[in-house]
Amino acid sequence: TDFDAAYRSATKLHKGGRFTQAADKFTACMELCNLIPGFADKLPSLYNNRSAMYEKAGDKWEQSLADIEVLLTLSPKHIKGRWRRARVLQKLNQCREALVEVCVVAHLDRERELRGEEKGVSVDESIVAAIHEGVVEEDMAEAAAAMKAHRGLPSPFLSQLFLRSFGSWIPLLKSPPQPPPSAEEHLAAARDAEAPLASRVTAVLAALRCLTAHRRFQGALDDACPVASALLAEAADGGGDAAGGAGGVAPEALAALHDLVGTYAHLNHDLAAAERHYNAALELLLAGGAGPANGGAGEAALPGGRERFRGEVMVRLAGLMLDSGRMEDASKGYDAGILALPDDDPYGLIHRSQLYLIKQDAAAARRDLETAIRRDPSNVVAHNRLVGVLTILGEADAASECMSNAKAVDTEDDVDLCVTEGEMYLSRGDVVQGFGLLDRALERDPGHVHALCTRAGVLLQIFGALQSGQPAPPGLPPASLEDVRSAFEQVLAVDPHNAQAVLQHGQLVLGTTADPSVHDSVFAAFDEAVVRSRSDADAREIVKMRAFARAQREAAEVFKAASGQV
């Protein structure tokens, strides 16, 4: 028949790689179907074949997609058509819709599996990964502006962790000043317009330090920083020579105030303001020269002394550059800050080691941390970080020796060290010992975010093993789904936007709850966590999960419609 001849011709052209001509022949077949009684049922197959020819032609994506749309109208569960639609949508840069089709294909294959049938299509995972990455890149581009514009302090735990990474803050945080006078009294003195500017600057410095030492970080940001900013503006308008300081205030006091306001802007993710204040502090130190006779009123405003203070501001500025993705500037800034710090100060090296870890240069991080320990053999933070780096490098014996050294110099039973030791045992497969150390750390500090998050991760692993038929590790109780969810909820109670906890808790809820309103709350948590992320890496992990979860939810509706369930 004419139909058979046209079909044979289309097949021959296809085999010969003449895809556009083959598509034309399939068009002829379709026209004949409309003329020959009883041939209409061949149309889905012909639309499928012609869409395949347009796809293989490499430049007819719109024509291919149009045929697929008709095919899926005629045969909504045509799995090969669904998979082709995903591929073609990717070529048309419509990755979000393509990802939904990938998930529909998974639904259809699962249905076939339940019926005891073979998979309906061989899915190329590299194409799936490229589609997923396309959605992630699009979402990250949208999130970048929101992340940059977002303001908000991290959790108190993380705020304290940031401050404790600088030597001059450690004594104040360990032994906070006790009222009277209270921070509120200091603030009242700072607001007294009749008082000399110098005394008001001294008062607001005292208020900020008192609030910070007592972990009242939000109060410092909301109540004290606006007063400090107003006084800095007044000092800038007040003139005065370099020796006397602006408005009669010692340059060192103004530098200390700029640094504190900059630190809170940094914590609040207002990186542009933080950079202005850090640079202003450094300029004031330079303008102030040696200050009032090394130990006068101006020098006393600088915690840890001029040399340490200047170096720490430079290291904070380098950290800000790292946070804003300026890796090369951050590297130069750390180098300069380390040179400016006293020879016995280990903290600049500790900070730079984090830059090396981000660059995936664990060997360089190790060198910095070993140098930090030589500078200060009793520094538990440096020992603690080095254990983690040695674990990354796979040097188990060296990590154990470093942990022993750390415990030997740890006079305060450091909680962070206990958590790191627990992680060290976990990395070696000793779940019982590692889990026990995490519990011990949490007995001493129930709000330790890192310990809570690591513990929740262990419970998730135990639960996963149980689900796959493996027993729980000897000495540990079985972990139920509710145990795991509760563990991540404990993390979120302390650090509501912790990226890892939001991600894992969201996966658990989405995988075990069908309630759309609950799903909506999970997606809202994802959205908020992305905006509040302090690093692209954290944001990307959440965006990847969110993209697939949203696609799966849409795919479920498409599958229901294809099955005639809606």
Please provide a written account of the structure.
There is one protein chain. The chain is mostly helical and 566 residues long. 73% of the residues lie in helices and 0% in strands. The chain contains 28 helices and no strands. The protein has helices at 2-15, 19-33, 43-57, 61-74, 79-91, 95-114, 125-149, 156-163, 170-174, 183-190, 197-213, 217-237, 251-267, 271-287, 297-300, 306-323, 327-340, 347-358, 362-375, 380-392, 396-409, 415-427, 431-444, 449-467, 481-494, 499-512, 516-532, 536-562. α19 runs antiparallel to α20. The longest helix is centred in the C-terminal third of the chain and has 27 residues, at 536-562. It is elongated. It starts with a helix and ends with a helix.
Please give the largest β-sheet: none
Number of helices: 28
Mean pLDDT: 89
Overall structural class, as computed from helix and strand content, comes to mainly alpha
Q: Nearest-angstrom radius of gyration?
A: 31 Å
**How far apart are the termini?**
42 Å
> Which residue ranges are poorly predicted, with pLDDT under 50 across at least 5 consecutive positions?
239-244, 290-296
Helix proportion range: over 70%
What is the number of beta strands?
0
Q: How do the helices and strands follow one another from N- to C-terminus?
A: HHHHHHHHHHHHHHHHHHHHHHHHHHHH
Shape: elongated
What share of the residues does DSSP label as strand, in percent? under 5%
